[in-house]
Each structure stands twice: as structure tokens, then as C-alpha cells.
Amino acid sequence: MDLGISIAIAVTVVVMIAGFAAAARRLLNLTFGLLRAFLAGALAFVLAGPIAKAMAGSVSPDDSSLAPLWFLILAVACALLAAMVFLAVAEALVPTGSLPGPVELVRSLRGRVVRSRRYFTIVRILARHGLGPYLRGRRPDLGGASGRARLAHSLRRALDEAGVTFVKLGQILSTRPDLLPAEFIDELTLLRDRAAPAPWEEIERVLAAELPGPVEEVFAEFERRPLASASIAQVYAARLRSGARVVVKVQRPGVAEVVERDLDIVARLARSLEARTRWGRAIGVRDLARGFAEALHEELDFRVETANMAAVAAGSRDAAVHVPDPYAPLCGRRVLVMERLDGTPLGAAAPGAGATGHAGETGGQGKIGDGAEVGDGTAGGEGVAGPGEERGAEPVMLARTLLDTLLRQIMVDGVFHADPHPGNIMLLEDGRLGLLDFGSVGRLDGSLRASLQRLLLAMDRGDPLGVSDALLEVVPRPDEIDEQRLERELGRFMARHMSGGGVPAAGARMFTDLFKIVSGHGLSVPPEVAAVFRTLATVEGTLTALEPGFDLVAEARAFAVRHFAERRDPAAVRRIVTDEVAALLPMLRRLPRRVERIVGAAEHGRLSLNVRLFADERDRRHVTAMLHQVLLTVLAATTGIMAVLLLGTDAGPKVTAEVSLYQLFAYNLLVVASVLALRVLVLIFRRDT
Q1: How many CA atoms does the CB half-sphere of 238 hold within 13 Å?
Q2: pTM over 0.70
Q3: Extents of the domains making up the chain
């Protein structure tokens, strides 16, 4: 056969397959993948010939009427119907989007192999530490508090062995007493984020890619030995050309790729746990994993931390607390250059304190918050006072200043340091406190701050009803809740913790008890509110380390008194009243006329109420789609019934010796009914429509 003829035949076949595929997609009024549509078109092309041949058997060769043409059209319609059935069945068995396309599959094959290896490594680690049954959805008997402690110990060791992402996950979970029992919280707080320093050659390549020039040109001095090293970043001491002393936080090479791969595993594990376990669904494991991934992505972008530093510094009003200044022109996604502070981390300077407490990447001043020090171990270089030297400020005053600053950030400014553990706070040489590590910063909008203020005021008054109302404004209100029981439990909570004379550990137990009440009533704490409680619980330990016996509750109540006294200042009250009256004045001027019209209409029996149904476009689209499906179903049923009735009719002119005109109409009506029914079925199978 001539090559040109072969090419022409091949092109014709491809065009016919494409035509069948396009017609099937158009009749179903949906979009399908190219592979699925091509297979449907190929099926129709293969079946069209045999169907047409079978129908041609009933047509006389010398028939000069339009019957052969009608049967040919009917054969093509039946082949097209087969393609639509294929698409409908494929959509029911394998919905669109549930499997990657061939192109995406080829592109991601290598990444899938790498992720699979890592996934099996994590599963082996969890199984080795006795956590395998939890992945399969089984929940063995823990045997009380001792069993929970053993499980928490195994979980902590498994997360520590799994690496940076899972260590970070454990650190986040250690701040959520509303989700985990106390045994898990105590164990997960022991996680430390530390690593051996990366070679200078690798760090230098990161600096060269992020800085506007070579290290020797940008900095007058740059110590190549890191002050501290953790799994995400390393910190170096340097001096700018201007003479300013700075610290440089540099992201470790390749850490972003490792984190991305591990976050995919965390998401898969979260989906599995939520699908297979009741406790996973109860605490919302997938939402936790999603929030964790977002937080870790922000931590990997040092530009976010730079912006956070500027936001917290802009709202800082206390001269006794200092936020280091970032050098924005030198800051990038993987490099952060900030002012170097001279002092001692609070975890080392506090009376009786050991190493720093929590594991967090401060990026500042010789510590990364986990006690994993490299180099001289000092926070600010030469001339740093030791833990036992005089600082020029009483510990109780420093603790009060720190708490006042943090509460003002939360309640007034709306931008607050969300991880104030001792490793992230420095006691400076001049007696001030320095805040470090702004990778974790919380933000509250005005309405949420107002609700928190009402909550704090109601607690100060000892008003359980006010606390209950304010709490239901802070958290999303469920459809059903026993408000009376909630009010009684909050009353007992305040009687236990707000009556004064508490022991030093009352603050920590207070937050734990409050979270138990919230979770016990099925209330879900928004992430920003959880960050507030986590911050207060963290700072309670910091304040106790700085001043043993520090009463967090009493000092917070004193702050509320001072703050709201400022708001009750005559000038402030006059300004608020003036603003409110100015906003209400236009409405008040129109109010008498509107009241008069309403009263007049009611008096003469003309008062009516107009309600616009389906004013929302989304409601109209939803109802329209439902009506379309109902209409298609009715048309399909009607057409099918008509086809069956016509098939049972023997009367009518004969098109062929065996088929009457009515029966030919019936066959066409059956095809139409099948097409309409398939459209309804595909809409049901495809849930995103």
C-alpha cells in the first residue's frame, strides 16, 4: 500500500476517533481527560462498523429510500452511546482527578520513589517504637497514666529519630494541651532541635545566592565558625561595613526540599489517621497537619520573620523591652541579618535555671533556642555578664515588664511574640529584656481582641455568665451546646484559679483546665486563639524561671485594671463618644421620618414585608442545577416510555421487511433517553459539579 494512502487512512481514523470523543464529551456537557476521552472515541470507532453492518442486514441492497441513511445514523448514534457509557462507568469507578494524568505521572515518578522510600522509613521508625497499631486504627489498652506515659515516651523518641520536620511537629503538639493529655505534653516538651554544623563551603554558597555581593564585600568581618547550629539554620557573628555588629542567620542547604518531602508524608499520615481512627477525626488531624505545614513554610522564609520583627517593634511601647532591628536590604528568603544584642539568654541567667528550655529557631545572638551551642557559647560576645552578676533590675520587675509587654501586644496591638520561652528572651547588659526568634508571631483582628478583652474583664469580675458569653464569641459556636453546664464549669474554674492565694504552678494548671473545658464541650479553638493560650502558657514557665513564685493570674488582673483604667480616662471616653455620635448622627436624622412612614403604613393597613428568595447567586445556581437534573430525569423517563410503547406497536408503514417506521422512531428515542439518563448519572458521579 502506498505510504500516502496509509497516512491518509491513519489521519482519517484519528479524526473520526477525535470526532466521537468530542461528541461524547459535548453530549455529556462535561470535561474529561484526554486519555479517557481518546479511549471512549476509540471504542465508538471500533463499534461503529459492526453495529452498522448488523443493521444493514435488514436493509435491501436495492432499497432507494432514506432507510439506509436512517440506519447508518442510528448505528453512529449507538456507537456514540457506547462511548458515553464508557465515560459514565469510568467516572463512577475512577472519578476525574482521583488519579494523576500520564504526563503528571511521568514527571512525578522520581519524586514518588524518593517519597516512598522516606515514607517507609518513617513507618519503620514508628513501628520500631511500638506505634504501628495506631497507624492501623487499633487502639490498645494503655493501662492508665503509666501506659500513656510509656506511649508518650515512645512517640517522642520516634519523632526525634524521624528528623527535623517531625521534631517541629512534636514541638507544636507540645503546646496544645487542649488536644493531648498532660503525659504527652510533658514528654514532647523534651524535644530538642539540634544538628551538627554544615560545612562553611555550603553556607557560603547560600550567602552568595542571597546577598547582593560576595561575603567579603558585604561584611567587614564574618566569623566562619557558627555561634549556634540547628536543623533549619545556623547563626554567625559578623560586622557590617558601617561598623555595626550583627548576627547572620543562614538556612541550611537543602533543608527546604527535605521539609517539603516530609510534609507530604505528614499529610498522608494525617489523612490515614483521620480516615481510620476515631481519635484522629475527633481532634481534626488533617487540619492540624495543614496548619503545621503553613507555619513551617513561613519559618523557612526568613522574609516573613523580617516582617514579623518590624511589626512587633512598631507596636512596642516599653523601653525596657528591646526588639533587634533587621537590616532589610541584606535579608532574603534564606538569610536574615539583624542587630546583635549583648546579654545572656534568660534560660541561663534565671536563678536556678539550667539550659534553655524550648526548642525553637531564634536565629539570634549565639543561641537557636535549644541549647545546642557551638563556638564560644556566649550570647553577645565579649563583656557579657554571667548568670550571677548584677543586672541593675530586680527579677520581679523584669518578669512584670515581660508579661505587661506581651499582654499589651495581645490585647491592644494584635501582633505578639508567640514563642516567649527562656531561650528566646535575653537579659541585656543594660538591664533590659531582648526578644528573639520572630518566626512564630500571632495576629488578632480587632473583633477578636475585643472578645478577649471582654473575657478577661468577666474573669476579673468573677462573672461566669460573662465569661461564657465572651468565650462563645472567641471560639466558633457549635449548633448545639449546653450553655448552663458550660457556665457552671467556668464558675468552678474561676473559683479554683481566680480566687487568689494560688500556688506557683496554678498558672500552668489553669490553662490546662481551661482547655479541658473547651474541648469537653466540643468547642474548636481557632489557631490564632490557640496561639494566645499557648503563648501565655509558655510565658508562665519563663516568668517562673525568672522569678520563682511569680503569680501570673494576679499580674494579668493588675494589667487589666491598668489597661481599662486608661480606656476610662475622661479624654479617651470623650473621644470614643464623639466618634460614635458622629457615626450615628446621619442615621438619627433619618430615623424620625422612617418611623413616621412605618407607623402610617401600619395604621392604614398597608404595612408589608418583602422577602427576596434566592438573593444569593450561589443559591440560584444550586437550585438551577437541581432543576436541570430533575428535568433531564423526567425527559429521559418520558422518552424511554414512549420508545417502549412504539416498539410494542405493530402498525405503521414498513421501512424494511422487519422494521416499521414507528419502531425506527422508537430506536432513536431509546438513544435519546439513554443520552439524557447518562447525563444525569455522570452529574451524580462527579461530585464537584
Answers
A1: 28
A2: no
A3: 3-103, 124-188, 200-343+355-380, 444-568, 573-603, 618-685
